[in-house]
Amino acid sequence: MQLKDNIKFSIDNQMSVGGEDCKNILIKGDNKAILPELVPVYGGKIKCIYIDPPYNNGDSYHYYNDNTTTSAWLKDMHSVLSWLRMLLKKDGSIWISIDDKEMAYLKVEADRIFGRENFASTIVWQQRKTRENRAVFSCNHEYVLVYAKDIKAFKKSRNLLPVGEDFVDSKYKNPDNDPRGPWQSVSASVQAGHAVASQFYTIISPAGVEFDPPKGRCWAYNQEKMLREIAEHNIWFGLEGRNTPRIKKFLANAKIGLTPETLWSGDNYGTTDSAKKHLLSLFPEMENVFDTPKPEELIKQIIEIASNEGEYVLDCYIGSGTTMATAHKLNRNYIGIEIGDQMADLVVRRMNLVINGESGGVSSAVNWNGGGQYALYNFDKNKVEERKIEDKPTYSRQPVQYHQLDLFDLFEQYGEEPITQNCMVREDIEIEYGTKHNHRHLPIDLTKNLLICNVKKDNWEQYLDGSAKIYYTGKRFPTSVALNKLYYFMPYLSGKGIRDLYYIKIARLGYRKEGQVNEDKNDLRLVFEIERVGQLFDDYKKVKLEIWRTFTDTTMKKIIELIE
Ligand SMILES: C[S@@+](CC[C@H](N)C(=O)[O-])C[C@H]1O[C@@H](n2cnc3c(N)ncnc32)[C@H](O)[C@@H]1O
Fold it and tell me: What's the CATH fold of domain 400-563?
């Protein structure tokens, strides 16, 4: 599926430099309405998200107001962050700019959404270098909260900061002319805290000098491995062969770079003032250039740590378009969303300057010479409403005939073979669910179908304590969706509603009271083998069940929208 397949998005050919196949996308509209529509196309595909939302600092700017209550602001942030999480790749990360006022509140909310274990760091960025003498304190920093979708995956994939050739030359040498190239040496001993007996022995150097591990330490390898490493010239005893043994680490195998630190200075990463000056240089005729731009240097640092060329960067509060301009110069693909008129006034004009080789911001640092494309889309949710209205008379004249899936229908739908095999096993999903997940960490695919079924009161207990593994349908099973398209299951407890989400692993033919003494092999049923994913909602929610009284099928997206 592509964006162009969604009726709500229409490309603005006049404002675009590129067509519908262009991977660099700007969208004019409200991110809260747009993000859910992006999930079916970009869910799990975005490597780096940077956002710089209104901080709720009580100010009013030329292009937007930043004054609401903390609870209303947090509610919006919760919704936006939840959708953004679904867009992130497994090894992706999200970087959120915020200032002192709401930082603590936002951190708690973001912890809930991404999980505290996925919190990577708080960057402190020196946002101004001049002193503000009217205030109690001259606040000269802002924060960037960094969360990973999965902290382990992010740690493996995030980039280190580049180091100069001088740094490499000073660290890696080749005193023994090793044909494998330059190397540096690291200690061959480690702290003995977790040592095993086989790590304590005497090493004899090529010149016959004996070495025992230093006090409180042991050798990094056991003796057998150490002898092998010595034979393969991976241990260095100095040119004379008499020095303390050290392990050779070759440049060719090294992931060279510096671990990013958390204090980012205005000198290295720009300030709000320097960003404004850059904008003024691009639009000298403008009276009201954007009030709160970020410097390209700051965004470059984020994008370079969090993504590689050709990967997707997303910003859903693009303001003057800094993230998109920087991502473009760094050869990333990007999606940018902005609700305000600055999309046309500033962003589009800025992107055209970038394509023409604009030389400010990070241009010289990345040798930017221009080129590339972007496509601007307008977003219009009314188009969908029009379509729904057109559809309505058909529904009212002729009620939808739901496919009633009784046992004969099963034969019809799946042919003879699956019936002989007697099951439909879901293998087209890689996700492994476990009991540890809770509803905020679910990798839910919103496009997939959800089945909601009534549970008889005498079976409630296993659904209340989450131990249910099987759901038997009644004799007839109504659904408008093919069986193999049903991915999720939610038990409906009458009077309470729905709360817990299960994943349908297997749908098969079975019979009532299977495995029990009073089982009846002639009383055939459809059986879902299910696995609890977690709570989708904090508490039970009542929903209207549309197919008969007991069953309904819908998509995940629809049910979440309905409840929210
Ligand atoms: C702080 S500014 C971003 C500045 C940006 N980082 C830059 O460098 O220019 C926040 C932007 O978010 C936009 N915005 C606020 N609510 C929005 C929403 N619901 N959807 C899309 N954009 C929104 C505002 O219009 C404003 O331009």
Answer: ph1033 like fold (3.10.590)
